[in-house]
Amino acid sequence: MKANLLKKSFFTYSKIIIALLVTFWLLSLTEVFLRLKASSIDEILQLVVYKLLNDFWIVLLIGVLFFPVYYLFNLLHSKYGSLVFVAFGVFLVLIELSLVKYSTITLLNLGADLLGYSYDDIYKTVASSASFSIVNYLLFLLVPLSFLTILYFFKRKMSDILPIKILLILSILIVPLKFFGTEFNEVKYQNKLGFLATDILQFKLRKLQASNYHITEENEYPLLKFTKDTKDVLGSFFNTKSQKPNIMVIILEGVGSEFVDGNSYSGFTPYLDSLITRSLYWENFVSNTGRTFGVLPSLIASLPYGETGFLEISKIPTHLSLFNLLKENGYTTSYYTGAPSSFDKIDKFLEYNDVDFIVDENKFGPSYVKTGSVDGFSWGYPDAEMFKKVLSTLKEKKQPRFDVIATLSNHEPFMFPNKAIYERKVDSILNTSQNFGVSKEEIESKKDIYATLLYSDNSLKTFMKDYEEEHDIENTIFIITGDHRLIPIEQKDKLCRFHVPLLIYSPMLKRAQRFKSVSSHWDVAPSIYSFLNNNYLLKPLKQTAWMGSGLDTVKKFRNIHQIGLMRYKGGLKDFIYDEYLYSDGSLYKINSSFETHKINDKKMLETVKDSFNSFKRMNNYVTEQDKIYPFTEMHKKQKRIKFSVEEQELIRETAEGKTFDEVFLIARAKAFEGDRETARLLCDFILNSMPNHVDARILKGRTLSWDGKYNEAEPLLLEAIERHPFYDDSYLALLDMYRWSGQESKSVITAKKAFRNKIKNPSVAFKLAMGYQKLAQKEQAFRVIDSLLEIYPENEEYIKFKKVLK
């Protein structure tokens, strides 16, 4: 009986597996068609064959792994196994469809980077990359329906033995390829679901392998080096002055080297190209990460990665950065972005480094126009608006200044003002006799991206021109680089994702110079600090702790650095050693044009692998054990709340598995129930990781006000306004606190500030009227309440208040 059940179960199961395989094949063929471009027939055929065989491999693994589960359900009832596994098949098809859609938009497979993002960050990234149309919704209905239709057909028309034969033949074909064919395992051929699962598994294994760093007394802080050991390689290029120079770092979203300086996709950044000819320019320069999450720690602080990026480390390790070092030496520090600074937990890094001015999406106000939205989503303020905001703040800041500016327009969904005008400019450029590194048809197919490049480049040009007219450009050094190479355009090799330009421009330069030697973002902070320390006598600092050793200013092609590259959060898979790139287990030679080709050199492969493994062990050790830099007086400024063991346990019980917004809703409910201590504890937990979570800050301030702790509430609510000057609830909470504590004069000042910031909530005006009443300033109170009644003549609360005034 059981033998018959096993046999019948196996036949039915094999048909479900074949139906799943065919559905995966259809998705792969669709992906190939959507990404089809000018390639040879041989390349297309190889892509199709290898992708289909990789689909079979992952479906075969699924089939083998889950057959025992299927059979156990069948033992309970003859139909249970089929029902459960068909439902599981629908689930797998939906996941594969989602991963294929992600890949066609980003040209990347989703892997372990999924572990490094919060729910909110994932939503923002997906919302910016895809338009939620009726077609998209239909796909998520039609593809599972196709799987069910195929399965129904196979069950009706296919013999029991045929799927077994198909699976056996394909298994005999694929197993040798999987284990002995190196090309077969290339990322571009892999099944999306298989890549996701194996990448997460490999990430977990890498974490275990990298945990055995050997510690001695000599290497407890392996990154420590004497400050004097980092040579000043920039000083000879500058005419230095007596006063310290302003340093302005401009991080250009998505600008890779392929888009500038006459390279493959260039012709759409004319201003940046012209600036290169007047700058120190590194042709063969790399970002340390393939996404934006790593640019600030690498560029500004030359820091290691940790598991999934430095900003994802829950307790930020003690470290140095240009922010805190230059602030210690009299610099005013600022960070500007048109996006939310909470994305990628950038705000945590800025808070740790005690940055003086943080200007993000919350600080722009009604006179600035946000970038266009897709399905209601917008990243924030486009480059021209952001640069305008920067210029509006500079005059009021004490010099010398250290300013970091991060642009965002050159990012999906590539929305910005006057887009149609810039798209016409792309058409005009394509109609000239200019030669391009790719076909005009390929540029035309990505017109929105090239239009964005033109817009961003023009925004930079306008900013630099206005800066020259209004500010001390003669004593300013500009450092301009890309955060990573644009993702939604096909990559020629494994290195180009990291290949970005680096320009150092200033009227203080003696001459322009190009360098072919290799350096990375890690080398910028050591060289800038060494230059300032050597030429402007900064406060003595015996030791530094940089990942980089400084910019290489040799003109010829060479590499003296060992550079770990993290493709995405958790994707530490690439390593530059000498003139070699190690990537996904293979070795590539880097030529003087910064192109790669695979080589077979087993001895060198082992040398590079050993160095990479040592690097990974050190990376894990210094970040997990807080052994980057010893704690000093300078680091006491970090604003982080410490919790007792009991508080940690309560937070764990309440917040585990929940997003910060979900925890906030719990905190708010606790506050309304009267459990204000727990509400404040949860708010502190949120603010430790998200210092810009304005609602948590306001809720904590309100609960303190309710308890009569006005001296504690006031600074919290004032900080909420400082961080979010255009958010009405910040003002309302502070106005209530002033009213309850009898500080009506402060209430009037706060309401007027709200009006200056164009806060239009009528409750602010009403609270102002009540403040005037308490101050016995009836005329002003009448004026405010009358203006409200003109707009809201039926409002009973306003009518009643006016009667009381009389």
TrEMBL record:
One of its GO terms (molecular function) is transferase activity. Pfam families: Sulfatase. The keyword Magnesium does not apply. GO terms for cellular component: plasma membrane. It comes from the Bacteria. Residues 245-531 form the Sulfatase N-terminal domain. The chain crosses the membrane at residues 12-36, 56-73, 80-100, 134-154, 161-181. Signal peptide: none annotated. Keywords: Cell membrane, Membrane, Transferase, Transmembrane, Transmembrane helix. It is found in: Cell membrane. It is a multi-pass membrane protein. InterPro entries: Alkaline_phosphatase_core_sf, OpgB/LTA_synthase_biosynth, Sulfatase_N, TPR-like_helical_dom_sf. This is Phosphoglycerol transferase MdoB-like AlkP superfamily enzyme. It comes from Tenacibaculum caenipelagi.
